Amino acid sequence: MRNIGPVSAQWLAAVGIHTVDGLHALGAINAYALVRAHGYNANLNLLWALQGALTDVHSTRIPPAPSRNSGNA
Question: Considering the entire predicted model, what is its pTM?
Answer without folding.
Answer: 0.83
